[in-house]
Amino acid sequence: MAEPPPARVLASASSLNPSAGHHLVTGDPRELAAAEHAGERSWAAWTYYACRYGDRGRQFTRSDSAWIATLSGSPGSVVERQIRWLGTLLAARGMPRLLLEEHLRILHEELVAAVPERAPEYASLLQAANSLRSEREAYMPDSALRILETGFRDLLGRPTDDDLRAGILIPAAVADERAGVPGAVTSLMEWLADGARFPARWLAAVDQTLRRARGSPVGSTGSDRQSR
Question: Fewer CB atoms near the end CB (10 Å): N or C, the chain?
Answer without folding.
Answer: N
